[in-house]
Amino acid sequence: MPVQTLDDLAVQGTTLGVRIDINSPLTESGDLADDARLRAHVDTLSELLERGGKVAILAHQGRPGSDDFASLSPHAERLDELLSYPVTHCDATFSADARKAVGNLRESEAVVLENTRFYSEEYMEFPAEEAAETHLVDCLTPELDVYVNDAFAAAHRSQPSLVGFPTRLPGYVGRVMESELDVLGDIDATPRPRVYVVGGAKVSDSIAVAENVLERDLADHVLTAGVVGNVFLFADGADLGDASADFIHDQGYWDYIDDAADLLETYGDKIHLPKDTAVERDGERVEITRSDFPPNEDEAAMDVGDATITAYSKILRDAGTVILNGPAGVFEDDTFADGTRELYTEAVNAEYSIVGGGDTAAAIRKFGLSGFDHVSTGGGACLRMLTGDPLPAVKALSR
Ligand SMILES: Nc1ncnc2c1ncn2[C@@H]1O[C@H](COP(=O)(O)OP(=O)(O)O)[C@@H](O)[C@H]1O
Ligand SMILES: O=C(OP(=O)(O)O)[C@H](O)COP(=O)(O)O
C-alpha cells in the first residue's frame, strides 16, 4: 500500500497535525520514567521544524481509568529539552484555546496538545470515514494544512486522531512510521533460516503470528517461550502443574490451548517447545525437566531452563534472521531473567535481527544489549504487522 513520506511534502510555512506515540511509563509522582518513545520521534519533529513547519503535536498517555492516564505536560517539557526548537504545552486538545494555540504557531515552533484520550470519542474505534466526523477531527481540521502520522505504536488502533484526519487532509507518514513499515513490511526478503521467537504474555496475538508465518511459509523455526511456551506445553499434553494452569485460566488464555494444539498437529516439525522450566522453591530458582513434570502445585513456570536455552541457542546461532517478540520468562525478577537474557544475547548475533514489544525493549535495556538491526517502537502494532493484517492508521493514509 503506497503511502506518502515527508520527502513528498513541501513543509515550509504549513501547519501540520503530527500524531506521535509518546505513551510512556510514569513515576508515582507523574514524571516520565522513560523517554525512549519521545526520543524516537526526535528525527521526525526536528526535520519538520527545521524545514519551517508549524507543528501541532497530537498524542495520548495511558488509558482512561489507569494510573498512567495523565496530562502531556511533562512530555512537552521533555520534548522542549530534546529538540532545538521551542515546544510548548496547551492544556486543551481541540477547544477554542487549542485552536488558538495552533493558529498562533510561527514557523519552526511546536505545541503539544493535551492527551487526546481525555476526550471520550478518542478511546473508541471507528471506520476512518466516521472518525473524520468526530469532534476532535472536525474542530482541528480547519487549523491544519497537512496531517503526518508517526505513531506506529498506536497504528493498530482505529481511533479518530489516528484514522480520521487523512480523509480530510493530505496525509503523510513520519520517519518512525516509514522505517517500521519498511522493515516489518518486508520480512519475506530477509535471510533464511528465519527464526521467530514468540514469548511474553500476549498469547492470542502470538498464536496468530505463529499461525500466519507458518501458513505463509515465512518461518523455518518458531521457538515458544514465556506464557506462550507454557500454553504450547499444555497443548502438547505436558502437565505444567496447577499454578501455571490457573495463571493461564485467569489470563483468559485457556481456550487457546486448542489453537496451539492445532498448530502443533499441522506444523509440529517447525514449532519448538521448552524442554524444561524454572520455578521458585524455598526462595530459590529450581529447574525441572519435562520428564519430571508436574512441578509442585504452588510452583508456577516462570522461565525456561538451561536445557531449553541450550537447544534454542543452537537454532538462533544458525539463523539468518531472528524475529523476536516477548520475554522468555518473568525477566523483571532477576531469579527468572536467565532465559530472556541468554536468548536475547544469542539473537543479537544473527545475521539480521528484529525485535518488538514494550517489555521486550525494556528487557533489552535492562540487559544493556545493543546491535539488533531493528528495535520496533510498537508492541501490539508490531505483532499485528507480523500477522500480515493491515494497520488501520496505515490503511487510512494509503492512496
Ligand atoms: N512464564 C511466565 N509467567 C508469567 N509471566 C511471564 C512469563 N514469561 C513472561 N512473562 C511476562 O510477560 C510480560 C511481557 O509480555 P508481553 O507484553 O507479551 O511482551 P511485549 O510487551 O514485549 O510484547 C512480562 O511482564 C513478563 O513478566
Ligand atoms: O503503548 C502502546 O502499545 P503497546 O503496549 O502495544 O506497545 C501504544 O501507545 C498503544 O496504546 P494502547 O494499547 O493503550 O492503545
UniProtKB/TrEMBL annotation:
Keyword Glycoprotein in record: no
Main localization of the protein described in the UniProt heading: cytoplasm
Enzymatic class: transferase
UniProt GO BP: gluconeogenesis; glycolytic process
Superkingdom of origin: Archaea
SUPFAM superfamilies, per the entry: Phosphoglycerate kinase
Residues binding ATP: E332, G357, G358, D359, T360
UniProt: (2R)-3-phosphoglycerate binding residues: R37, R117, R157
Pathway in which the depicted protein is active: Carbohydrate degradation; glycolysis; pyruvate from D-glyceraldehyde 3-phosphate: step 2/5
Enzyme Commission designation: 2.7.2.3
Protein's cellular compartments: Cytoplasm
Record keyword ATP-binding present: yes
Alphabetized InterPro entries for the sequence: Phosphoglycerate_kinase, Phosphoglycerate_kinase_N, Phosphoglycerate_kinase_sf
An example molecular function term from Gene Ontology annotations: phosphoglycerate kinase activity
Residues that, per the record, bind substrate: D21, I22, N23, R37, H60, Q61, G62, R63, R117, R157
Keyword annotations of the record: ATP-binding, Cytoplasm, Glycolysis, Kinase, Nucleotide-binding, Transferase
Catalytic reaction(s) noted: (2R)-3-phosphoglycerate + ATP = (2R)-3-phospho-glyceroyl phosphate + ADP
Family: Belongs to the phosphoglycerate kinase family.
Subunit-structure text: Monomer.
Protein name in the entry: Phosphoglycerate kinase
Organism of provenance: Haladaptatus pallidirubidus
The encoding gene: pgk
